[in-house]
Design brief:
It is built from seven helices and nine strands; from the N terminus they run E-H-H-H-E-E-E-E-E-E-H-E-E-H-H-H. By secondary structure, it is of the alpha+beta class.
């Protein structure tokens, strides 16, 4: 494997969801669509119409590329808003509020980039859930920052070594578009069989 100059913000989300999925997507280049990924792509296609708008006293900028030299991150935001000199990222997701923390981690990574690009602290971000038409606030607190920075380091190591994380079956496998490539239940059965024999 070769050194990656920058880590994709999207890779952090995938890694926090499932390291094996991240490896398949960003090391092997595998991706398979399913109902959920198609709905997500459709949502982002609508959101990523590059535009700048003013809504009352809020400046909205869509599809902005974010970059951090300090953390070696790069990625495209769905929406950046500014009000009263404060900047915050808004990440769009297709479903209802997620049960896992990978989306919050993605928002935090965007906030780290925004801080570096604007020179201003970013203390808040949002996740907009399309099915419920609701925004969930994400506090960019110290614990989330530390978790995000640790995930950046883990993804950087994964990309640079290419070492495959194990496929582990969990509730997160439900709805995963790469489940048929991964087959985590089968991997577990093979491992048990090999131990017995």
């Amino acid at each position: 494997m070769t050194d990656f100059e920058y880590v994709s913000i999207a890779a952090l989300n995938q890694y926090a969801y499932c390291p094996h999925r991240c490896w398949r997507m960003f090391c092997l280049g595998e991706f398979v669509d399913n109902q959920y990924t198609i709905e997500g792509t459709s949502l982002h296609d609508r959101v990523h119409t590059t535009a700048e708008a003013q809504r009352e006293e809020i400046l909205q900028i869509r599809a902005v590329w974010l970059k951090s030299e300090q953390y070696r991150l790069i990625g495209k935001s769905d929406l950046i808003e500014e009000t009263d000199g404060c900047w915050y990222p808004v990440e769009y997701k297709r479903g209802h509020r997620g049960e896992f923390d990978n989306d919050e981690l993605q928002v935090c990574a965007q906030a780290l980039c925004l801080e570096e690009m604007t020179g201003q602290p970013v203390r808040l971000g949002y996740i907009y859930y399309a099915q419920s038409y609701q925004r969930q606030p994400v506090e960019i607190a110290a614990e989330l920052r530390q978790q995000t920075i640790a995930t950046i380091a883990a993804v950087t190591q994964l990309l640079n070594t290419g070492i495959m994380p194990p496929a582990v079956y969990s509730a997160r496998c439900k709805g995963c578009s790469l489940y048929a490539q991964c087959l985590p239940k089968a991997v577990g059965k093979v491992a048990c069989y090999q131990e017995v024999n």
